[in-house]
Design goal:
Length: 353
């Protein structure tokens, strides 16, 4: 089936053919001008309205793009909706414009309409992204599974699918989805990192260590992966190796978690130095971390500086607001077991030490 570009380039109209060629070259202003000139000659052709909508979307003129997509849909309906390809394209373009405007519920419905006209796996992936943003994880996973069943088993589909499963508390299924994705993308850093995190959450540190090692080989920004490696090595009681990884992470990236882990390990035999490190973390800017990570960094720092009651209160407040920690850092808590209040702090987070 022809898409809208090839339809215009082969319809015998010089203006629309030239406009489609300019669009393909990224010259959207000029393409829009040709499409508008052609519209004065041929009128409200659905494919021409669609082309104008796409050009306006590329120019970030979202309100105008929406108006043209709506016109294209209505014009298509007047012809009996015979052209499902162009109707689907119009609904998908409308969804993209709505998504950029932050109207996620409406964008979700428009993607569903597009898929009803044409089951395109790329639209299923975009729908899943919107559903994920709306905290509809089960719906997003179902959309991705539909994309896979429709022949759209791509790297991006597997990345999002595995991430959703991981965040939904299904680490074993997340690991399996990432493993399948790696069968055709063996050097994908994101998929290896998901496998490492999934195995860590599932308390399979040996498998997690292998996966994070592969992630380190495939990234040019090793800091976060080195930090994960340090946490995994703590689980395996390889503290000397964990100290090296944490120190490398600290050198590689500005990350409060790396500072904290390194402080725990490097200063394990020097409580006063460790307390100074915790105090520095407590005083530092925690922007960029998730709510759980901020709460854990703050709580551990308070605990390390002897402010046990405050640390426990911090953990309890986080649990009331956000629930238990998604990734229990049992190794960190074990290192702090000599601190008064460490057990109560871990319990307040919902973590078993």
């Amino acid at each position: 089936m022809k898409n809208w570009v090839t339809s215009l380039m082969t319809d015998g109209n010089a203006l629309t053919s030239e406009g489609a060629d300019l669009y393909n070259q990224g010259q959207y202003d000029e393409a829009l001008e040709r499409f508008e000139q052609a519209a004065t000659v041929v009128g409200e052709e659905p494919v021409l309205l669609l082309a104008q909508g796409h050009a306006l979307l590329a120019l970030d003129q979202l309100a105008r793009a929406l108006a043209h997509y709506d016109q294209a849909i209505r014009a298509g309906e007047r012809t009996g909706g015979r052209d499902g390809v162009h109707q689907g394209e119009a609904h998908a373009g409308r969804a993209k414009a709505l998504n950029r405007l932050g109207l996620l519920d409406q964008a979700s419905e428009s993607y569903r309409d597009a898929i009803a006209h044409r089951p395109d796996p790329s639209w299923m992936l975009l729908l899943a992204h919107v559903q994920f943003q709306l905290d509809r994880s089960e719906e997003a996973a179902a959309s991705l599974e539909q994309a896979i069943a429709s022949g759209g088993d791509s790297r991006d589909v597997r990345r999002l699918h595995a991430e959703i499963l991981l965040q939904s508390g299904r680490p074993i299924e997340a690991d399996e989805s990432a493993r399948i994705g790696l069968a055709t993308n063996t050097t994908d850093h994101v998929l290896w990192t998901i496998r490492a995190t999934a195995n860590y959450v599932a308390h399979q540190p040996a498998a997690a260590l292998h996966a994070i090692g592969e992630a380190l080989v495939t990234t040019t920004q090793p800091g976060p992966a080195l930090l994960r490696q340090a946490l995994i090595l703590i689980e395996l009681d390889r503290l000397a190796d964990a100290a090296r990884s944490a120190h490398e992470a600290e050198m590689a990236c500005q990350d409060n978690r790396a500072d904290l882990v390194s402080g725990c390990l490097v200063h394990a035999d020097d409580p006063e130095a460790a307390k100074r490190r915790f105090a520095a973390v407590l005083a530092s800017d925690l922007d960029g971390l998730t709510a759980a990570e901020q709460a854990e960094c703050t709580g551990l720092a308070l605990l390390g500086t002897g402010r046990c009651d405050d640390a426990i209160a911090s953990a309890q407040q986080h649990r009331l607001t956000h629930g238990p920690l998604p990734v229990p850092s049992r190794g960190l808590h074990r290192l702090l077991a000599t601190c008064d209040g460490a057990e109560a702090f871990s319990g307040a987070f919902g973590v078993t030490v």
